[in-house]
Each structure stands twice: as structure tokens, then as C-alpha cells.
Amino acid sequence: MSTGLIIALIVIGAVLVIAVAAFLALRARSPRGGRDLRRRFGPEYDRAVARHDGDTKAAERELNQRVERHGDLHPEPLDPVRRERFEARWAAAQELFVEAPRAAVSEADHLLAEAAEARGFPDSSHYDDQLSALSVHHAVHVQGYRHVHRLAHEPDGNGVAEERTATEEMREAMVEARELFEDLVGAGAGGADKKGSRGI
Q1: Any alpha helices (H) in the chain, and if so which ranges?
Q2: Mean of the pLDDT values across residues 10-23?
Q3: Can you give the C-alpha Rg of the chain in angstroms?
């Protein structure tokens, strides 16, 4: 075999190895659909399917777009002082809930937006974009943010029974939202300082 032929075979082999490696790396980076997306997004996958009236292809297209857009985002850790400030404000919001549930929910909404922005997620003035990015990195708990945001921006109800129902829903939203809040502020310390659940 001539030296030229050997060099050509080595070059072709190297190109094939690089092409296969690139293909596998690209395939590993993005969810392929179905099971991979369901595993990555959990309950968010089911919400997307429901939002698309059961059309799993459309839901998976949407979720893949979220991953393509926000999957490379690497949340920044919070410094201890900032984390403590966020935790103090959350504790104050929980205490406020007893006297003013709606004000507490509104504060929880602001805190989640600010904490997400502090970690490097999209700007809080772009709620949908921020929620989309959070769903990629915190899919299990993002519903809490969605819930408090909706309640914080809907008008007050009328009537005692309606008020009691609304207060219970606000309490549930605060409990759900606390999970995401703890993910956001606790992840700054590698999760080691994550607080345990506290009641409202």
C-alpha cells in the first residue's frame, strides 16, 4: 500500500470519527422527544400537552424550543449575603400572609422574579421568557411561580365565601412557590444551605 493511500485512509477515518462524535454530542445535548422530554420536564410536559389539546407533537416541539433557547443557560450562584436577604424577605412575606394574604402573594411573585433574575435567568420584565427558562432548569417547581403570578395579578374577589376560597388558594400557591424559591436561593450554595419547609 502506498504512503499516499495510507494517509488518505487515516484522514477519512479521522473525519468519520469527528463526524460521529459531533452527531452523538449534538444528540445528547437536546432531548429527542417523548420519554426524554417527559423525564426532563415532568409535570411541565403534561401541562404543555394539555395546553396543546393533547397534541404531543406540538407540545414536544414547544418544549424542544425551550431547551434550544435556554438549555445552555448556566445559573449564577448567589453570594451568601444576597441569599440571606432573599431568605429574610421570604420569611417576612410568610409572616405577612396572616394579615394580608394578597400582599404576601404579590411579594412572593416579586421575590421569585428577582431571585431568578439574580441567578441569571431572563429579565423579570419579560415574565413569559423568564418562566420558559425556569421551566427548563426547574421544571418540577415552576408551577408555583405560575400560580403566585396569576393570583398576584388577578383582581380581588367579593364575598366572604369567595374570600375564604381565595385565601386557601393563595396559601397553596405560597407553599408551591416556596419550593421554587428554595431551589433558586439554595442552589447558590450547591444546595447545602437549602432550608426545610416551613408552614405559613
Answers
A1: 3-29, 34-41, 43-51, 56-70, 80-99, 101-118, 127-137, 142-152, 160-186
A2: 84
A3: 23
